[in-house]
Design goal:
homodimer; alpha+beta; 6 helices; 28% strand; globular
């Protein structure tokens, strides 16, 4: 529902929020968990420009789990209150500069499920791994997903150690095919109980907000381990997420139609609304240790995803699997139809056979030690204020020597 | 380390603990979480005979997570104290009858990882799903595992609703191939940090205790969804565990040698000890709604597993994936070399082609509504007291009608 909090004419008394290109104008109001200076306590906050509004008067605790547990109507009410107190005509409150704070994981993540919702990604990877059989027969029927690891989800900025593993039979060594995956993460809202299903028409009530997610992957480990139960150590050494959760409410103006399906989905996956996709533009940048500036590797949009978030939630609960507030869903790598829309190096370099040329003349097949991968996202629609996601970044550290 | 707490001559002043065949003699001392009558509070306890010793004087909280976080030396010390105060020559303490209590999940389970550590199970299932290629080339090198769902882990006794799902292209219906899987669950102990590896010689320090685990599975859903990322909705509708955690200390007398490996494992998976397997006898019983008595479906032993718990822990952390106290590892279905050692119906009935005949003349290919599956385990070794695990049971409820 679009309301006065989305009005593009709104201005904040926090001047930095009104500057063109700011990720966090008053129409955004993303939530996060921060620690100020040497404080031993974590606090909940809303980003506004380059400042943070402390949410202690509204929300108790040190994680957003209790916020995610709220019904959507309560979340909307809180958004109105925060919007009101940050408007140009509101009294000044004490804010904290983002630069003085460390950002933390937004929630105690219960379960992490990673989908595979981009048909372009599935087809591109399929061509590389199974040229004779790129898109499996179930893809257009089942929103494919697997369970990921919650304990290794880290906040943007955390360095990523190159993992060791079995690269092929008989070889245990640091991965030679370290990759990123450009994804969105979706934090789930109100709990369901064992045996409860969420009909697709109500699925969005369980979508609390989204962030950027980098599902770091070791392709050589993945190839050798993934049959028959799927990826495990190739993925669970680290997953990075951006610290600011852009709420479902903030995304309202950016709804759009999902791409048409060649094969009609089963009834439990058929949305009753036309606009269940979100138009979120995404970019991947690489900053090599030797480079002065980052290079853009790809661009894509979340609106290209074959399966939408409401379909993912309806599918996930169709067997009665319970959801908990703060559970995280990953979208899977977000690739689009064009070569510059590919959301990971496996796709971009065709498994290393077509290296990317960087501006300094060097090449990349997979990530090298010292490389920093930076994900960005923003939403743009005429007659609305642009909103951004901030960054999700991580630098690759060399493998340990033992 | 075997010590005085394992002495088979020990007797408890709790008479029921001294009866032959009791699962919980004074040499066992498993831990659990119970709720007495209508108390709003959950308590930690040790099972002794048919009673429970309240652990409030030793351990705070309402879950065993803080116990699992303790170093093994502290766990051993506590075992000595509990053993001492339950011996025949000790003062009487107030105990609670198990019959007056409801048992709860032992811990807030962070992440659940399910291994695939029985080569007999992998080969039997492989023959059914991929007759041309039963045991995949990675099996003897990689302790295969996948991430499971923590939110749907339930305690023994919780009814299991038959899940709906996509059984094949175009069909969404209640599963027709509902199965159990006989497994052990292992609760993990002290935490590791992101990037830390646990060398195999120290892996057992992170094994806090074990329980029975039934990894309920919907085989038709699994067949259609599992490529390429592994099982998802076929498994995450429910996983049952027994409420009493048999500690690593209680298992000491039952160490044994693992079966020989035809292919030597890589160095990081080579145990320095000879006795890293545990001899735990397991049984599966089926109580049909129409039957007066349960029927034993299979028997096997945990000592047959190709991969041992220390290998699983070393593998899991070999890429730096962090462990948290209260994380749960499943062993995978425990099957042995003989036909009566098969730990699930998929194997026992060869995917329904060879139905099991029950004593009342009825047959089973897969589970029917009203069936109760009961897992049992016990450890037996000459010159030591037998210890048991209690039961892990669950009854199948009909699918909902919508």
């Amino acid at each position: 529902m679009i309301d006065e909090t989305h009005d593009p004419a709104l201005r904040s008394w926090v001047e930095s929020a009104n500057r063109p290109g700011c990720d966090f104008p008053i129409q955004n109001l993303p939530l996060g968990v921060f620690r100020h200076g040497r404080s031993p306590k974590d606090s909940l906050g809303v980003a506004i420009g380059d400042m943070i509004l402390d949410l202690a008067p509204w929300l108790p605790g040190e994680t957003l789990n209790s916020y995610f547990a709220l019904p959507a109507s309560d979340r909307r009410k809180l958004r109105h209150e925060w919007s009101a107190c940050l408007r140009a005509d509101s009294p000044v409150r004490n804010l904290t500069p983002q630069n003085d704070c460390q950002m933390l994981l937004p929630a105690a993540i219960g379960d992490f499920t990673d989908f595979y919702a981009s048909i372009h990604h599935a087809a591109n990877v399929g061509k590389i791994l199974r040229p004779e059989n790129p898109l499996l027969p179930n893809y257009r029927h089942v929103p494919i997903a697997y369970h990921g690891r919650a304990s290794s989800i880290v906040v943007s900025g955390t360095p990523i150690r190159r993992p060791r593993g079995q690269l092929r039979e008989g070889q245990f060594a640091p991965t030679k095919e370290l990759d990123y995956e450009l994804e969105l993460g979706a934090f789930l809202g109100p709990a369901t109980v064992l045996g409860e299903t969420v009909p697709i028409a109500r699925a969005e009530e369980h979508l609390a907000g989204v962030c950027l997610l980098n599902d770091w992957s070791a392709r050589d480990i993945q190839r050798w381990e993934y049959q028959p139960l799927g990826p495990f150590l190739a993925k669970n050494f680290a997953t990075s997420i951006s610290p600011w959760v852009v709420t479902a409410e903030a995304l309202e103006p950016f709804r759009t139609s999902p791409p048409p399906h060649e094969v009609a989905p089963l009834a439990y996956l058929q949305s009753t609304q036309l606009t269940t996709a979100f138009d979120i533009s995404l970019e991947v940048w690489l900053l090599a240790a030797s480079a002065a500036e980052p290079t853009r590797l790809s661009q894509s949009s979340f609106k290209e995803m074959y399966w939408t978030l409401d379909q993912m939630i309806a599918h996930h609960t169709s067997n009665g699997c319970p959801l908990r507030p703060g559970d995280l869903i990953g979208s899977g790598t977000i690739s689009g139809p064009e070569p510059h829309n590919r959301g990971c190096l496996l796709e971009l370099t065709k498994k290393g056979r077509a290296p990317i040329k960087l501006p300094d003349g060097r090449q990349r097949c997979f990530l090298e030690d010292g490389d920093t991968v930076i994900l960005h996202a923003c939403c743009h629609r005429e007659h609305f204020a642009d909103i951004g996601f901030g960054a999700c970044s991580g630098q690759i550290l060399a493998a340990t020597t033992t």
